[in-house]
């Protein structure tokens, strides 16, 4: 592999203009560069290495690679990336994750499990090296595929806007940036050829049983042949126009929502139905979507059809109530539109992602807040002495994968902190002699290995703080109390 040349390259200049125009990376910023070994990520790394040497940039780069253990060649890919980082004198963090096993445990597709594993890895690795940006190699062709995929699956205007150039990761203070979003795949491959860069090829990219591969390998080539080479640019213009329209509608909807809110509480919001009814359909739809986001309703499960049904509740001749995903419901009561979570006593299983950091309100009013912090022995000792109900500190690096809060399952077991071994959740609750109402309030906060915290009662022994702990995840669970209830 040749070292990159010093003469300006049109590809590198395009990447630089995109970075500067959107302020993706600042001078002297720590950047974790996600490198799979494919042409896209190799080209991105090469461009960033070249730009980092320019006056006024001085990016501090660290290469990151996650081996999903899904292909026989995966170990060779990891070795290729590690060698690439060594040749360019860059530090490299390379780890493995059994994505297939993770998908089975979490009931996820392989693609979703792999995506979540990468994000979790990026969070940990960026925190480890002090990086505040994570660069990934999505490019303009990926954006076209994403817009079409969302269009065929069914999406709102926000989805048609395509892939954002940057966004915040769940671990606060770290942004995911996409420096190649302004360049095409053909430009990437031409740059690699000019620079003499080699790359790894993932044979599964040709398997059209995956929806995105079908779009990339069959549908888009057919569209380009039938309608000419401007198909990608046309979809790009659509995405740009959708983004502009989304921004304008969001401003109008934000103003409407601000005037419409009559009452708001954890898991519940009451809106002025008459004000909403006076607005245009598009602005009203955006307003009720924002209202759902305000009370932490599960937006990934909220289809376009269900949002339209919710917006229609304000019409005098429409339905008076509907159920919503995540054990939420909405109804019109005279001049009010009430959106609220079902009570804990009546709701079924809840699968809601816990923000890391951030706060989540569950149906019934229970709130879960997560915050990261460096290990502070004095603060931890004070926490142990205080013993506040619902407040726990755990070893953040003992948590594997994203956290999920859900109801307990029949026969489920965990190893309670301080216990000699595992026991069923049912037996654990029986031993505490909790009344049935409080037993129904208990929630399982889990990672991919199982229960982390039987909230708000006891953490699992495997995530306890030890002398080796470097980072703390503080979880605060607040349970609404009724008169006469004792603390869970």
Describe the protein:
- Helices cover 41% and strands 20% of the residues.
- It has 16 helices and 22 strands.
- Strand 1, helix 2 and strand 2 form a beta-alpha-beta unit.
- The relative contact order is 0.08.
- The N terminus and C terminus are likely disordered.
Number of strands: 22
What is the CA-atom radius of gyration, in angstroms?
Answer: 25 Å
Mean pLDDT: 84
Helical residues, percent = 40-55%
Q: CATH homologous superfamily of the largest domain, by name? A: HUPs
CATH topology of the largest domain: Rossmann fold
Per CATH, which architecture of the largest domain? 3-Layer(aba) Sandwich
Percentage of residues in DSSP E strands: 15-25%
Q: Please report the number of helical segments.
A: 16
Number of domains: 3
Structural class: alpha+beta
| Uncertain stretches | 1-6, 344-352, 481-488
Write down the CATH class of the largest domain: Alpha Beta
General form: globular
The main sheet orders its strands as: 3-2-1-4-6-5
Work out the oligomeric state of the chains in this entry: single chain
Q: Give the CA-CA distance, first to last residue.
A: 62 Å
Question: Strand count, sense and closure of the main sheet?
Answer: 6 strands, mixed
Short description:
The chain has helices at residues 10-22, 39-52, 74-87, 99-106, 110-129, 140-153, 157-160, 185-195, 211-227, 231-260, 273-278, 281-294, 304-312, 377-386, 425-432, 436-441; strands spanning 30-34, 60-67, 92-96, 133-135, 166-168, 175-177, 261-265, 268-272, 321-324, 328-333, 336-341, 352-353, 358-361, 367-374, 391-395, 404-406, 413-414, 423-424, 443-447, 450-455, 458-459, 471-478.
């Amino acid at each position: 592999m040749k070292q990159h040349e010093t003469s300006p390259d049109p590809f590198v200049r395009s990447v630089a203009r995109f970075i500067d125009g959107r302020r993706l990376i600042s001078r002297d910023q720590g950047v974790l560069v996600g490198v799979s070994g494919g042409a896209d990520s190799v080209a991105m790394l090469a461009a960033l290495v070249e730009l980092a040497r320019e006056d006024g940039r001085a990016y501090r780069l660290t290469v990151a690679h996650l081996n999903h253990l899904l292909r026989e060649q995966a170990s060779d890919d990891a070795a290729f990336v590690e060698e690439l980082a060594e040749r360019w004198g860059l530090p490299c963090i390379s780890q493995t994750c059994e994505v297939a096993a993770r998908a089975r445990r979490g009931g996820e597709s392989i693609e979703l499990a792999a995506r979540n594993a990468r994000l979790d890895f990026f969070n940990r690795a960026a925190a480890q090296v002090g990086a505040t940006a994570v660069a990934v190699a999505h490019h303009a062709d990926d954006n076209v595929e994403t817009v079409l995929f969302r269009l065929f699956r069914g999406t709102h205007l926000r989805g048609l806007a395509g892939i954002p150039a940057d966004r915040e990761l769940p671990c606060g203070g770290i942004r995911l940036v996409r420096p190649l979003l302004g360049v095409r795949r053909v430009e990437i491959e031409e740059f690699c050829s000019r620079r003499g860069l080699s790359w790894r090829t993932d044979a599964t990219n040709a398997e059209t049983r995956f929806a995105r591969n079908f779009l990339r390998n069959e549908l888009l080539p057919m569209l380009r042949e039938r309608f000419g080479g401007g198909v990608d640019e046309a979809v790009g213009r659509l995405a740009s126009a959708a983004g502009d329209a989304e921004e304008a509608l969001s401003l109008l909807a934000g103003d409407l929502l601000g005037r419409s809110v009559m009452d708001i509480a954890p898991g519940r919001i009451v809106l002025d139905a008459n004000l909403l009814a006076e607005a245009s359909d598009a602005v009203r739809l955006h307003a009720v979507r924002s209202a759902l986001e305000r009370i932490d309703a599960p937006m990934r499960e909220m289809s376009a059809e269900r949002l339209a049904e919710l917006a229609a509740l304000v019409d005098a001749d429409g339905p008076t109530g509907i159920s919503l995903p995540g054990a939420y419901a909405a109804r019109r009561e005279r001049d009010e539109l009430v959106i609220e979570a079902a009570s804990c006593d009546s709701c079924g299983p809840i699968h809601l992602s816990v923000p890391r950091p951030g706060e989540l309100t569950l149906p019934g009013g229970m709130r879960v807040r997560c915050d990261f912090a460096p290990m502070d022995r004095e603060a931890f000792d004070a926490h142990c002495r205080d013993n506040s109900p619902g407040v726990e500190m755990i070893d953040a690096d003992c948590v594997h994968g994203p956290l999920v809060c859900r109801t307990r399952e029949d026969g489920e077991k965990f190893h309670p902190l301080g216990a000699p071994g595992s026991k069923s959740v049912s037996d654990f609750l029986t031993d505490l002699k909790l009344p049935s109402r409080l037993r129904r309030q208990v929630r399982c906060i889990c990672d991919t290995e199982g229960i982390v915290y039987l909230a708000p009662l006891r953490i699992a022994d495997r995530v306890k703080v030890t002398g080796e702990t470097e980072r703390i995840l503080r979880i605060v669970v607040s349970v609404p109390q009724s008169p006469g209830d004792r603390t869970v």
